[in-house]
Amino acid sequence: MNENLTESFTRGDGRRADELRPVRFQNHIAPHATGSTLIEWGQTRVICGVTVEDAVPRWMKDQNVPGGWITAEYSMLPYSTLQRKPRDISKGKLDGRSQEIQRLIGRSIRAAVDLQKIGPRTLWIDCDVLQADGGTRTAAITGSYVALRFAIGKLLTEGKLADNPLLNPVAAVSVGIVNGQALLDLCYAEDAYAEVDLNVVMTSTGEFIELQGSGEEATFTEEQLAKMIGLAKTGLRQLFERQQMSLKASGGTEWVGRGLQTPG
What we know:
Helix content is 32%, strand content 26%. It is α+β, with helices and mostly antiparallel strands. It has one domain: Ribosomal Protein S5, domain 2. Strands 1-2-3-5-4 form a five-stranded mixed β-sheet. Strands 7-6-8-9 form a four-stranded antiparallel β-sheet, with helices on both faces. The longest helix has 28 residues, at 222-249. The radius of gyration is 18 Å and the shape is globular.
């Protein structure tokens, strides 16, 4: 794929093919949470909150698994989309998409923490989508890491943790192919017409946590995959920087994890 084409390509919202939408964090948005942030990513807005329960899941006790656990819940509020989305509770069960996303969030955030060091407790990550315009799962993961940092910092300050359990920062971004063009950070209008959709979750040291990719009634080549991963790394470098800037602005950088470098 022609690199110059990627640089000069202009999208419906005026962005280049390799450009993120604006990303902003409003930290400490939920006073009763141990750590929280509202991540605004373009027109997508997600509140991420962390609360602590001094207990572990039953399966950990039964299997004598040491340490603690991190799990997530994800929901889209009824007014988050153009057409009202009924709450899952009104249907009596969690829909498959929400279940898949909250499991992804849990896996991603667990990769950021040494679970043995958090002791016999559970960290709950709650992600509530206020407004959806594409990339809600990647925004939830990226925002959850910031909320996690504040929660861990509070536990350390209160003396509830003996050692810092943080490993490496975690973030996620979407990429895709629309009309044959590889694009970074798809908004809803682009995602709806994408031939290929790929979500990339990574640590700041450049290690993959998860790749979720599929062709939407289309196939993609190894070259296109490499191009999308390259775009994702470009976006992730910026996201790690914005996470750290937000934490620094809110006094959360004294509890840094290992290896805050960004992926090359």
